[in-house]
Design brief:
By secondary structure, this protein is an alpha+beta fold. 43% of the residues lie in helices and 16% in strands. The strands form three sheets. Strands 1-4-7-8-9 form a five-stranded antiparallel sheet. A two-stranded antiparallel ribbon has the order 2-3.
Length: 287
């Protein structure tokens, strides 16, 4: 009887020990989960705070650049990069006249064709058909017989045969915001990818022109570009993009599309008509 009683006690003690161990494991899991949750929330709060501060810094840098642009006697007519420091934070601000992009409301059929072949990777026949369809779409008339231009670059998705994958490849090369630009591109204001389109796919020509521009050369030879595609003219509309470094090695970018020829509703001597922002990794900051 005593052996049976001892066996029951040992069994009960074993069950209690197992229950205690399970409770310890459960509590450990809960504590680990809470710790991880707190750590994640703290990280999110830190990133949010960094983002808000970086956005304010980037916006301030753009405002400083705009003030300098307004005070100039001659407008900026080429792609320009400045590196302002505000409150001890060095930033990179790119100033691009909007005619450095391909105007989908004014570009000729041949320029659109080159855009779709070089920038979009389409076969020649498909590109030619899509270029004509684009012109047809932007020349459609409203009820009063007036043409209805593309209001945003995303409106290209209304063109039959132009899907999102193609639009994504083109979105950084085009604009719908150029007014009275004649549909031609300023090669001194264009990114290398746009220059490659103007050069019919010749990346070497594009690189040479971009290198000369970045080196501050005057009188850059652009004769290798399509003569019907280019026009070096000053405009009042600019795309200004500021990049602000974050502590984790990433960058926050903020961009404003502005018109220096119009006064804003806030009383500023310029009108901001488009704003966007996002994040990018360190190795892409110079893209």
């Amino acid at each position: 009887m005593r052996d049976s009683h001892n066996a029951r006690n040992r069994h009960q003690r074993g069950m209690v020990l197992i229950a205690v161990l399970w409770m310890v494991v459960a509590l450990s899991i809960i504590v680990t989960g809470i710790t991880r949750s707190v750590r994640d929330e703290a990280r999110i709060m830190s990133l949010t705070r960094q983002g808000v501060e970086a956005y304010a810094l980037g916006d301030a840098a753009i405002q400083l650049v705009l003030q300098d642009m307004v005070s100039r006697t001659a407008p900026i007519s080429r792609l320009t990069q400045v590196e302002p420091v505000y409150r001890g934070v060095p930033m990179v601000v790119q100033i691009m006249p909007i005619n450095g992009l391909i105007d989908i409301n004014g570009a000729s059929v041949s320029l659109l064709n080159s855009l779709y072949v070089v920038g979009g990777g389409l076969p020649a026949d498909a590109a030619a058909a899509l270029a004509q369809a684009t012109v047809d779409a932007r020349e459609r008339k409203d009820s009063r017989g007036a043409p209805v231009p593309f209001e945003a670059t995303e409106d290209l998705l209304q063109v039959p045969g132009l899907g999102y994958a193609l639009y994504a490849r083109l979105s950084g090369l085009i604009t719908s915001d150029l007014r009275r630009g004649g549909g031609k591109v300023n090669p001194l204001a264009a990114q290398p990818e746009v220059l490659t389109v103007l050069a019919g796919g010749n990346a070497g020509v594009a690189a040479r022109i971009a290198a000369g521009r970045e080196g501050g050369l005057e009188g850059i030879d652009t004769t290798a570009l399509g003569a019907d595609f280019t026009d070096i003219a000053a405009v009042q509309r600019f795309h200004i993009k500021a990049r602000v470094p974050l502590s984790d090695g990433a960058w926050l970018w903020i961009s404003r599309s502005v018109d220096l020829g119009a006064r804003g509703h806030d009383g500023m001597p310029w009108h901001t008509f488009r704003t966007s922002y996002g994040f990018e990794h360190l190795h892409r900051k110079n893209s």
